[in-house]
Every structure is written in structure tokens, then in C-alpha cells.
Fold each of these.
Amino acid sequence: MKKMLNTLYVSTQGLYLSKEGETMVATLKGEKVSQIPLLNLSGIVCLGNVLCSPFLLGECATRHIQISFLTANGRFLAREQDGWN
């Protein structure tokens, strides 16, 4: 099985990303907007006011899914990668 390098770019301001089972759920103002299997992701780039739950951060670290945080204009702020073995 070949894993494709799929990066999700999130730019919707006020979006909240969380873990639900084996998927990542995106909610906006309490309403589910999208749901993506974590198996399909190799990276997540959050632009601006995008929040991630601690459980999603931990699961992404376990699965070696890199999460990057940038300003709304694209200036680098922080990156979380391979934090756990």
C-alpha cells in the first residue's frame, strides 16, 4: 500500500479541529463542516484563527502527521511534528 502525501490547508477563521474516532472533524460555530479520515493525511496547515484540540494534536503526533500554524497572511508561527515515539 502506497501512502500519498496529502496536506490539508485550513484557512476558515474560527474553525475548530478535533478528533472523533479515527477522523478529524472541523466545526464552525458548533456545526460540523467536514470530517476527514486521519489515514488520508500527512500534514495539516492552519492559517490564522484555527484551533486544534489536544486530543487531535496527540493523535497526529502518534501518527506522524505534521501540524503547522501560520498567521492569516502566511507568516510561520509554530510546527508540531513527531513529538511522540
Amino acid sequence: MRALIADDHSLVRRALRSLLKEYGHEVVGEAHNGLEAVEVARAIRPEVVLMDLSMPDMTSLTAIRLISAEMPEIKVIVLTASEDDEGVLEAVKFGASGYFNKNIESDEFFDLLEAVISGEPALPAKLAPRVLDEFAHVDDGGPPHEELTPRERDVLELMAEGITSDRDLAERLFVSENTVKYHLKNVFGKLHTRNRAQVVAYAFRYGLVGEEPSPPT
């Protein structure tokens, strides 16, 4: 995995760089503010950006929005020591694929990181129902998921069950991963969502999933 670390504290960047290298990942760049994070992401196109939620010069939320809009293939993961749910909510609304609390253990950090890289969202369950309220648009004809084709609905329902990686979706649907990506693109567009975390939030909002999973500890 090729990672960009964006944090305004040099000690945090060094610690993350060392930890990522220890687990066999490549750190291809660092940034100490939001503006630099966007510029470095444009230049090196990392697979993932690990971004502190609070940085100077350009806010992290603005940086997340720009990276997600210009380079949607890059997964942005928010790192924060704060319990500020509103900040995490805004980050996901602007395109973040996940949220990690800086207090988690290293093994859990890498388990969640690998999950996000494979296409699974990392989102506190208590926030999922609220995410949609920020970005979903419901027309007079009913909720947006009613516009989905039967196959797109299958994709949505599987994701609501927790099956979110391209490979696992392809296996369950007996189609290729490219076909899954095609259906996902349509699902994102029709539901006015930007990533899988928001699709899962949509599923919670409209009761397309049973019990919510326990939030990350």
C-alpha cells in the first residue's frame, strides 16, 4: 500500500511512517497542512491518505473534498484523537472513506486499514443514520433506492449486510469485479453518495440492514 501521511505534528508523522514501514507499507509522501496534502496527493497519487482532522492553512474538510472530487480512486481516512462526532460526520459527507481514532491499538489500526483498502467502510455505527441526512436527496416519487435496477438493489442489500469489497460482492453475485464496479458507480450516482461508507449509512437510514454493528473501540 502506498500511503500519504497528512498531520501538522512532525512526531505523529514520524510515528505513523515508522509503524507503516514496520508492517510492510510504503509511505510515499508527507504533508503538514491541508493545502500541502492536496498538492502532494495530486503529484504522487497515493492509494490512501491518512489525514488528521484538524490542520492549518487549508482545513482538512476542504482537503478531503478536493481530493475526493479530483482523485476519487484515493481513499482518505480521517485520524483524530477527538470524540467530535460532528467533525467525523462532515469528513464522511465530503468523501472520507473511514475514520480511525488515534487511540486504537496498532493491530486494530491495520485490520481497519486493510478493510478500507479492500473497499469496506470504517464508520462509527452511531453516525451511520446521520450521514445521509447531510447529503441524500429524496424526490416526490420516493427514496432514491427505488430508482435502482434489481441488480443494483442486490449490490446495495449485500453492502447493507456488511459485504462491501469488490471481490466479495463479485463472489456473491457470480459476476466479475469489473461488473461490480459498474454497478457500484450507478448506485453511488443514484443515491447521491460518494463512497461505500455513505452507501452503508444510506442502508441504515432506510432500514435496509438489520442490527447495527458495534462501533469501533
